[in-house]
From TrEMBL:
<dbReference type="InterPro" id="IPR004556">
    <property type="entry name" value="HemK-like"/>
</dbReference>
<dbReference type="InterPro" id="IPR029063">
    <property type="entry name" value="SAM-dependent_MTases_sf"/>
</dbReference>
<comment type="similarity">
    <text>Belongs to the protein N5-glutamine methyltransferase family. PrmC subfamily.</text>
</comment>
<dbReference type="InterPro" id="IPR019874">
    <property type="entry name" value="RF_methyltr_PrmC"/>
</dbReference>
<dbReference type="InterPro" id="IPR050320">
    <property type="entry name" value="N5-glutamine_MTase"/>
</dbReference>
<feature type="binding site">
    <location>
        <begin position="181"/>
        <end position="184"/>
    </location>
    <ligand>
        <name>substrate</name>
    </ligand>
</feature>
<dbReference type="InterPro" id="IPR025714">
    <property type="entry name" value="Methyltranfer_dom"/>
</dbReference>
<comment type="function">
    <text>Methylates the class 1 translation termination release factors RF1/PrfA and RF2/PrfB on the glutamine residue of the universally conserved GGQ motif.</text>
</comment>
<dbReference type="GO" id="GO:0102559">
    <property type="term" value="F:peptide chain release factor N(5)-glutamine methyltransferase activity"/>
</dbReference>
<feature type="binding site">
    <location>
        <position position="139"/>
    </location>
    <ligand>
        <name>S-adenosyl-L-methionine</name>
    </ligand>
</feature>
<keyword id="KW-0808">Transferase</keyword>
<feature type="binding site">
    <location>
        <position position="181"/>
    </location>
    <ligand>
        <name>S-adenosyl-L-methionine</name>
    </ligand>
</feature>
<dbReference type="InterPro" id="IPR002052">
    <property type="entry name" value="DNA_methylase_N6_adenine_CS"/>
</dbReference>
<feature type="region of interest" description="Disordered">
    <location>
        <begin position="267"/>
        <end position="290"/>
    </location>
</feature>
<dbReference type="GO" id="GO:0032259">
    <property type="term" value="P:methylation"/>
</dbReference>
<feature type="domain" description="Release factor glutamine methyltransferase N-terminal">
    <location>
        <begin position="3"/>
        <end position="71"/>
    </location>
</feature>
<keyword id="KW-0489">Methyltransferase</keyword>
Length: 290
């Protein structure tokens, strides 16, 4: 098998795959139904290359996402089924989920909503890691909803089809945490990687407006509507959008403690804020007596 893995690695390198050896091993492991660690042990024993391996390598060389070929994406501690029609969850979003989890675990029976849930990644991770949480997830796309339905079936997460701009109209002021990784790419910023440009749904990528921030602004408005005073909002965005996101949150008068957060590579990829309650006279308080 080592020879086949080497030639697959070479084929994938030429095709521009950033991690050719890892991808080759993961494809072989997928076909054999074993972990990558177990695959390495099998390689040492001289095991045969699995049937169908070259065909999968060719598809990967054609820049079909690895996760579409294996049918799985791992997000924090959960394995999610993914494929055509749904956004493949990204490692940087794990840090956004972490922020929501860190807040939620401090609360008794917190109510949390994930706006634009896609595969259900953030909602599933929160349900997995926050005992006693009531988790909701909202998604507009029929195709993504089907994947999320499958991934969230045994999680207890309440999945709703709807627009994040108008989501959960009966539940205003009742959530402790709102988390979102909304579409945020500006219309003129076409993704470079074919895996993204050709395989992630456009509905998952483009945020609307010249700056790509129409949907993030809508998510923030919805978060302000859904959160209790003192509730926590955290949202992913592009690095260059961090100042604009902080500015529009600070400018609404609905938020305090607006904070930019870095991902694991040190880039400004998320912003959080705490909901202030509105008093009749227009002044605000976070509900904590200040
Ligand atoms: C960038 S993807 C993130 C998916 C998932 N939360 C994740 O982090 O992997 C954005 C998601 O928002 C959904 N979406 C786009 N517009 C929406 C809208 N107006 N209302 C609700 N969901 C929307 C897309 O279909 C997509 O699943």
């Amino acid at each position: 098998m080592e020879d086949a893995l080497r030639s697959a690695e070479q084929r994938l390198r030429v095709a521009g795959i950033p991690s050719p050896r890892v991808d080759a091993e993961l494809l072989a492991a997928h076909l054999l139904g074993v972990s990558r660690g177990r695959l390495r042990a099998l390689v040492l024993t001289g095991a045969e290359v699995p049937e169908g391996f070259e065909a999968l390598v060719e598809q990967r060389a054609g820049r079909v996402p690895l996760q579409h070929l294996t049918g799985t994406a791992t997000f924090r501690r959960v394995d999610l089924a993914v494929g055509p029609g749904v956004f493949v969850p990204r490692p940087e979003t794990e840090s956004v989920a972490q922020l929501a989890i860190d807040r939620a675990v401090q609360l008794d029976a917190p109510r949390i909503v994930d706006l634009g849930t896609g595969s259900g990644a953030i909602a599933a991770a929160i349900a997995d890691e926050v005992p006693g949480a009531e988790v909701h997830a909202v998604e507009l796309s029929e195709l993504a909803l089907a994947w999320a339905g499958r991934n969230l079936a045994s999680s207890g997460v309440q999945l709703t089809q709807g627009d994040l701009a108008t989501a959960l109209p009966e539940q205003g002021g009742s959530f402790d945490v709102v988390v979102s990784n909304p579409p945020y790419i500006p219309p003129d910023a076409v993704p470079v990687d074919p895996e993204v440009a050709d395989h992630d749904p456009h509905l998952a990528l483009y945020g609307g407006g010249a700056d790509g921030l129409d949907l993030p602004r809508a998510a923030a408005r919805t978060a302000a509507r859904l959160l209790k005073p003192g509730g926590y909002f955290v949202m992913e965005h592009a690095e260059v959008q961090a100042p604009a996101v902080a500015a529009f949150l600070a400018g609404t008068g609905s938020w305090e403690a607006v904070t930019t957060h870095q991902d694991l590579t040190g880039r400004d990829r998320a912003t959080s804020a705490v909901r202030i309650s509105e008093r009749p006279g227009g002044s605000t308080t976070n509900g904590a007596g200040r």
